[in-house]
Design goal:
Layout lengths: L2 H14 L4 H9 L5 H16 L1 H11 L7 H16 L4 H10 L5 H16 L1 H9 L2 H5 L3 H10 L4 H7 L7 E4 L6 H10 L4 E3 L6 E4 L16 E3 L2 H9 L7 E5 L5 H9 L5 E6 L2 H14 L4 E4 L14 E7 L14 H4 L4 H19 E11 L8 H10 L3 E4 L7 E2 L4 E3 L9 E8 L3
Parallel strand pairs: 5-6, 5-8, 6-7, 8-9
Antiparallel strand pairs: 1-3, 1-4, 2-3, 9-13, 10-13, 11-12, 12-13
Length: 430
């Protein structure tokens, strides 16, 4: 079995088929016999997608004309990634990548020539890439423009952070153990980690490990969740007896966190319109031994599911460009399109309007995205506040991210966190 060929097949389904890397990789890794093979295929696929615009540019410089066969094109990128960004011995990187072309003699000859030419004159081709902005930052030009427009002083660091592997953060289930006890469990297991100073449920590992190595993982002592995402639980300010809506809840990380924080809620409805993602939410609830009202429904059409009883708290983790989590999902750079942003902004506004009708007077709505684009975040909230006389912005006093015109923005990599945005809104009598 050639792991480079497996990696190329995963990339083909993402690049050529528009599928999510997470889903394709999950099914592929189950078929691989060893942990070593699984880790290597994951490294290759994530690495190629993180650096795709740069690798693709370099490949273009190495070719007289484009390679029409996508699988051969992707194998060339896999080879270039190994030579440029891994500790794989150059001889093995070239030979094994060439061998992955199997019964295509012309492809083997072409791949051998491409990779050996890059080896011989790597500094020249890398210098060419540095002079091309999309290649230098490893992002498509349209995305660079959008991020630069939102953060002219910070965009270069955001783009750089997007090419780095993220830290592995855990959320401690306070129903099963406290954070200090779990840190001791990790130390006994030889897994270095430290407590996050930003969120009282969060632990950050010094190096990523397989979840099977984490003490009590399958017993739901901890879950994998970035620190920025964990902030939603403490910002929503929930209390026993309240009726809470977790809109766009799947795959359930924030739902479980709310139940862990306040198990005596009056009712928590976890709503989402994606059946496959709700299945993951239900599996996560089962692993944790928790239950709540899970609802397959469209947030923008409350008349089809709402019983008329207002909610005291609503968490609206709105669909967005996901520009704050590109380092976790590098396929976003290939799958997202410029025209998507306007449609997402319209959907966010529609969801905000729908959620507001469900919120009780005196209630609170927490608006969240994993985006770093101002149009999806503070500008969205500014427009909403202008249109709603019964809406007040509630302060966020926690010291994370940075204060912006409305809410707080975390830029990718700040304090090790993903890019995230939060704004709190309170509803007063009209």
């Amino acid at each position: 079995m050639n792991t480079r060929a497996r990696a190329a097949d995963v990339l083909r389904q993402v690049v050529g088929g528009g599928k999510s890397l997470t889903g394709v990789l999950e099914s592929t890794l189950k078929q691989l016999p060893s942990e070593k093979d699984r880790a290597f295929v994951q490294t290759l696929t994530y690495g190629v997608l993180r650096w795709y615009p740069r690798l693709d540019f370099i490949l273009g410089q190495l070719l007289h004309k484009p390679v029409k066969q996508l699988d051969v094109h992707l194998l060339a990128l896999i080879g270039l990634f190994q030579l440029g960004y891994t500790r794989v011995k150059p001889h093995a990187a070239v030979c094994e990548t060439v061998a992955a072309a199997k019964s295509k003699p012309w492809a083997k000859a072409l791949l051998n020539a491409i990779l050996r030419n890059y080896q011989r004159d790597r500094s020249h081709f890398d210098a060419l890439a540095e002079r091309d902005e999309p290649a230098r930052f490893a992002h498509p030009a349209w995305l660079i423009r959008l991020i630069r427009a939102s953060w002219p002083d910070d965009y270069a660091d955001i783009l750089r952070q997007n090419t780095l592997p993220p830290p592995l953060a855990l959320r401690v289930n306070r129903l099963r153990c406290d954070r200090e006890d779990y840190l001791l469990q990790l130390a006994r297991a030889g897994i270095p980690a430290h407590a996050s100073p930003i969120c009282d449920s969060a632990i950050i590992l010094e190096s990523a490990v397989a979840v099977d190595r984490l003490p009590g993982f399958h017993a739901a002592w901890v879950s994998v969740q970035d620190v920025a995402a964990q902030l939603a639980g403490q910002l929503l300010d929930i209390h026993p007896g309240q009726r809470v809506l977790d809109a766009c809840a799947a795959p359930g990380g924030k739902t479980l966190h709310l139940l862990e924080i306040c198990p005596r809620l009056g009712e928590l409805i976890a709503l989402d319109s994606a059946p496959a993602r709700l299945e993951k939410l239900n599996r996560n609830l089962l692993r944790a031994g928790l239950s709540t009202h899970v609802l397959l429904a469209d947030m923008t059409m409350p008349s089809s599911w709402w019983d008329g009883k207002p909610f005291d708290r609503i968490l609206l983790d709105a669909p967005c460009s996901a520009t704050g989590v590109i380092r976790r999902h590098p396929d976003i750079k290939l799958l997202r399109r410029p025209e998507d942003i306007m449609g997402l902004c319209l959907l966010q506004r529609t969801m905000l309007e729908s959620a507001w009708t469900l919120l009780a007077t005196g209630g609170q709505l927490l608006y969240a995205t994993c985006s770093v684009l101002r149009s999806e975040n503070e500008e969205q909230i500014a427009s909403f506040l202008e249109a709603h006389a019964d809406a007040d912005e509630l302060p966020i006093v926690e010291g994370f991210g940075r204060h912006v015109s409305h809410g707080r923005q975390i830029l990718t990599g700040q304090s090790g966190m993903d890019g995230f945005y939060y704004a709190r809104l309170g509803k007063r009598p009209a």
